[in-house]
Amino acid sequence: MALFNTGTSGRVKSNDINGDAAILAYNALSGDTAQSLEWRLITNHKLKEIYQFELQSLLVGLATALFAVAIGTFITARIINHSIAMPLGIVTKMAQSLANGDLVRGMSDTEKDKVRVRQDEIGEIGQAFDRLIDYMQGMGIAATSIANNDLTTSVTPRSENDELGNAFAKMVADCAMPWDRWRKAPKQSHPPLPNWWLHLNNQAMPPDKLPPPSNRWPWASPNKLQASPRRPLQWNK
Fold first, then answer.
1. Which of 3, 41, 82, 210 could cross-link 27 (Cys pair, CB 3.0–4.6 Å)?
2. 72: part of which helix (H) or strand (E)?
3. Order of strands across the sheet with 40-46?
4. pLDDT of 122 higher than 80
5. Environment class of residue 155 by beta-carbon count within 10 Å: exposed (0-12), middle (13-18) or buried (19+)?
């Protein structure tokens, strides 16, 4: 009753009529009638219920925050996987294939475009690998042609520092030089071709199956022709 005697409003932590801890809120009514009757308003709310409500609110807020974090993490992971992890995986696959001698001819352009069409650093790496693969594939074609004794292939080095390109170009030029000299010389003065070049151009047949020298190389003497497992060179005359 001491609270009512103050003639003010407020709240205080106390006990309700059942002896349970509660928050008591009180209010002194205004007006002449209220003062003459000395009526007062008072309400209480048990602390246990208040704490339970606050705990529920806290749990709901925490669950909402965790759900938002999970959704954000999932979206971020998808973005990172699509924009970084997957392209880097393709580049790594290219590098591993090249390291094993596989020139990734079976990789589709659609898969390559996932890297090389990007307008960022990863795209630049993909474009560099694409040029490297094209270069290595070109060198592979040139090497196959040379191995098959086809010296009509053209090898153009990409720069003066292109070791493979310069080596293949020199190899083709050195192998083709005897034939060019012989072809350009007058027929009556055809110079003899080197023994190694004649040996390189023999048919892959045993000696007793070889055609007469006149049908193979008219300028070569029979004692210079030997069997070789290589195919004959093909020339553009």
1. 41
2. helix 47-80
3. 10-15, 21-28, 40-46
4. yes
5. buried
Residue 208 pLDDT greater than 80, yes or no: no
Strand partners, 41: 27
Exposure on the CB side of residue 179, measured as CA atoms within 13 A: 21
**Integer Cα distance of 132 and 94 in angstroms:** 10
Total-model pTM: 0.46
Residue 67 has pLDDT above 80, yes or no: yes
Separation between Cα atoms, residue 211 and residue 33, nearest integer Å: 140
CA distance 159 to 161: 5
Mean residue pLDDT of the chain comes to 71
Q: How far apart are CA 205 and CA 55, in angstroms?
A: 95
**Residue 227, C-beta contacts closer than 8 angstroms, at least 6 positions apart:** 202, 203, 204, 205, 206, 207, 210
Q: Report the C-alpha gap between 115 and 94 in whole angstroms.
A: 11
Which pLDDT value is given to residue 232?
A: 45
Cα–Cα nearest to 46, from 16, 87, 73, 75? 16
The two tokens of residue 206 are 């045993």
Angle (CA) 117-123-129 rounded to 5° is 100
Phi, psi of 15 (to 5 degrees): -120, 145
Chain segment 141-192, per-residue pLDDT in tens: 888 887 887 777 778 888 888 888 888 888 877 776 655 555 555 555 545 5
